[in-house]
Amino acid sequence: MPHVELSVTDPALGRARQPVDSSLAKWAMAAADAEEHCLVIDHSALIIAISASFEALLGLTVSAIGRPMVGGVMKLLDFGDGFELGAAEVDKTPPLLALASGRLARGLMRIRGTGEANHTLDAISTPLIEQGAITGSLTFFGEV
What we know:
about 140 residues, alpha+beta, Beta-Lactamase, six-stranded antiparallel β-sheet, 4 helices, 6 strands, globular
């Protein structure tokens, strides 16, 4: 006799990609449902959750979940010449700086959405910590 296992997925997890029992997952669910522009990345900078309003701002037509924040979804730009940031500058952006430092990070970011639309955003990021280890970061963005 065949054995079949079924599982039911909570619809709230549609925009968040983590089991619900971790702190990272709880923040991801909150961010996925938020009306504010926000993003949750894991310790390797993969996007775990993104708010619908932030996806719309960037003009994303495919899901960003599970893709790298940098190089996969966001094209981070230099404020001077408008070229993409190099690796050293990318590491100083608030979402990644919060991961590396374990502290709040804040700063302006310039992001190219789809097409040629550029967005200047005020970003504030906090590290997400579980059992003493940094598991990701949560970032809120405000349009400037």
